[in-house]
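Lecture notes, part 5. Sequence design as translation. It can be helpful to think of inverse folding as translation between two languages: the language of shapes and the language of residues. The source text, in structure tokens, appears below.
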């Protein structure tokens, strides 16, 4: 009984191994299509930008010392001449007093040399001394005068140095950054605060290397750019004012500054710069949904009809010339009259049979027949 069962199971396994399952036929898929026609393409380039002051200065003390007070904070509006920070002035005051004392000594020496010269001149005129002795007194007077001039200049320098203990704003503006705090010992020229001066504003943005030439050409055209502030739908005109001569070492992009005139924009506000591209005739536009990647190449599916009227698809590599919103500008690979699949491209395979998609309200049409060349999608 057990051997009979084994023989039956073995026979069933052999029959199952010898039988072949027929592969399922590829479904005839309905696809949306677009008939290629030549057109014109221009488009718009958009760059993220920021509003900055035309002039932004890093202010620092003209002498070194220890910061004892800082009265300016980020966001403060300041006036020209307003004190922003203060150094410990003790050493500077001592140096000033030393210079004043040296000036007083030089002045006393000059007065003595001048009196001696006058006395010796009278003696020479009376014939009591020689002209050589008077010349020595004249030389001493000139030396005393030079020492006095030097001491007076040094006293002026030390007076200025003492005044430099106070860091004052050189223009009206807004504090945009703070680089030093009270208690720090800073050298002369070390940035303490950054001041964005009132006046013209620029919109600053960066462009890749292949776009720099276009921006340089626009620099000669007033109002060539459009600027849209964040949260606003209105675009205003702007003009390219400055194009960086060299690329940024980290990003390899070029910084562009554009003049926005009297646009009421806040410092640091985000903006979008719009550049209209010139119109090019004889180009093809396709929706993004029509483009796919096959074997490492950017391609589309073309609908082909054989002699029996059966529709199938084949892959066609294309060259993309750019993008504009949700459309792709095709630079090559397509010809007018070709029918391109615009939806469902990810489920197609070479040679697969398809049918044209028909809207539910047009069921009485013939979905198997290809429509004549048209720029509208089916």
């Amino acid at each position: 009984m057990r051997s009979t069962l084994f023989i039956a199971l073995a026979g069933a396994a052999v029959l199952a191994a010898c039988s072949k399952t027929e592969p399922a036929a590829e479904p005839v898929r309905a696809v949306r299509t677009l008939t290629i026609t030549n057109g014109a393409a221009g488009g718009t380039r958009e760059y993220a930008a920021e509003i900055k002051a035309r002039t932004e200065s890093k202010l620092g003390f003209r002498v070194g010392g220890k910061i004892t007070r800082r009265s300016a904070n980020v966001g403060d509006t300041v006036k020209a001449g307003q004190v922003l920070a203060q150094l410990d002035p003790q050493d500077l005051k001592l140096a000033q007093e030393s210079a004043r004392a040296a000036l007083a000594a030089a002045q006393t020496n000059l007065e003595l040399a001048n009196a001696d010269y006058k006395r010796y001149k009278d003696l020479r005129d009376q014939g009591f001394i020689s002209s050589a002795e008077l010349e020595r007194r004249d030389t001493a007077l000139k030396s005393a005068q030079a020492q006095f001039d030097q001491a007076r200049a040094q006293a002026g320098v030390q007076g200025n140095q003492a005044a430099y203990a106070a860091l004052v704003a050189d223009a009206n503006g807004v504090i945009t950054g703070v680089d030093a705090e009270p208690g720090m010992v800073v050298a002369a020229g070390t940035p303490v605060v950054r001041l964005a001066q009132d006046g013209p504003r620029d919109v600053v943005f960066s462009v890749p290397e292949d776009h720099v030439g276009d921006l340089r050409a626009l620099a000669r055209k007033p109002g060539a750019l459009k600027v849209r502030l964040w949260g606003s739908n209105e675009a205003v005109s702007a003009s390219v004012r400055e194009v960086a001569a060299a690329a940024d070492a980290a990003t390899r992009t070029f910084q562009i500054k554009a003049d926005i005139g009297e646009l009421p924009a806040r410092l640091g506000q985000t903006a979008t710069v719009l550049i209209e591209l010139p119109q090019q005739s004889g180009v093809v536009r396709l929706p993004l949904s029509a483009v796919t990647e096959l074997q490492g190449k950017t391609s589309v599916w073309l609908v082909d009809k054989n002699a029996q009227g059966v529709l199938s698809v084949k892959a066609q590599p294309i060259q993309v010339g750019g993008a504009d919103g949700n459309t792709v500008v095709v630079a090559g690979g397509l010809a007018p009259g070709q029918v391109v699949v615009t939806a469902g491209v990810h489920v197609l395979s070479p040679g697969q049979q398809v049918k044209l998609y028909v809207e539910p309200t047009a069921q009485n049409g013939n979905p198997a027949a290809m429509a004549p060349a048209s720029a509208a999608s089916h």
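The translated text above is only one of many valid answers, since several sequences can fold into similar shapes. The chain has four domains: 29-43+282-362, 48-54+201-276, 57-84+165-196, 90-163.
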